[in-house]
From TrEMBL:
Family from the record: Belongs to the thymidylate kinase family.
Domain Thymidylate kinase-like: 7-173
Keywords annotated in UniProt: ATP-binding, Nucleotide-binding
Designated name of the protein: Thymidylate kinase
InterPro entries: P-loop_NTPase (IPR027417), Thymidylate_kin-like_dom (IPR039430)
Superkingdom per UniProt: Bacteria
Length: 201
């Protein structure tokens, strides 16, 4: 079973994904966490330290290259994994980021989304940008403006694929969010501790 998590920065994707995987393992199940990062935070932190910001198209080209590589490698890993596979981020995230920068969707990412094995569910962690902004400020590892987060949230909602996403309220605590994600897994009608991922059967 493959689940993809999406959401703006500060929605709790990584924390919730790790909590979900850990809880399944603690109950004797099998679960794998795979990260489809694009290196955006690292590039942002480096740019802040050096006092420059990459042009939007250059930044997108670098992020897309990293993201596509990670997605392709992780889909290969998912095809060989037992139980539940949780992907933290995916190509949808890059499409939403492009929209916030006023860049076109292009052809590669939509084509890849159609060519790759479909996830059993794409779960979007929905959170108020103001809440996300407070979380980001509290962790102190990166910086996002409230305006950027609001634009990112709008971009997700305007994705053609957004209507098929499973929406989960991510304004709750980490443990509660993990429980809600576990509920989504149960609602799919297949126990993640049994059998292999569909792509490998």
């Amino acid at each position: 079973m493959l689940i993809v998590l999406t959401g703006i920065d500060g929605s709790g994707k990584s924390t919730a994904a790790q909590a979900l995987v850990s809880s399944i393992r603690a109950d004797g199940g099998t679960a794998t966490l795979l990260n489809n990062h694009a290196g955006r935070r690292s590039m942002s932190v480096l740019g802040t330290r050096l006092g420059f910001r990459l042009p939007p198209r250059v930044a997108d080209a670098l992020e897309t290259a990293f993201r596509v590589w990670n997605v392709l490698v992780n889909h290969l890993r998912a095809s060989r994994a037992d139980g539940l596979v949780v992907m933290d981020r995916h190509l949808y995230c890059q499409l939403a980021l492009r929209a916030t920068k006023g860049l076109p969707r292009g052809r590669l990412l939509p084509w890849l989304l159609g060519a790759l094995p479909a996830a059993d569910a794409v779960v979007h962690l929905d959170v108020d940008p103001a809440v996300a902004h407070r979380r980001i400020a509290a962790r102190g590892t990166d910086a996002e403006t409230l305006e950027d987060l609001a634009a990112f949230a709008r971009a997700y909602r305007e994705l053609p694929e957004y209507g098929s996403f499973e929406k989960v309220d991510a304004s709750v605590s980490g443990p509660e969010l993990a429980r809600r994600l576990a509920g989504v897994v149960r609602g799919l009608g297949r126990a993640p501790v049994e059998g292999r991922h569909p792509a490998s059967t």
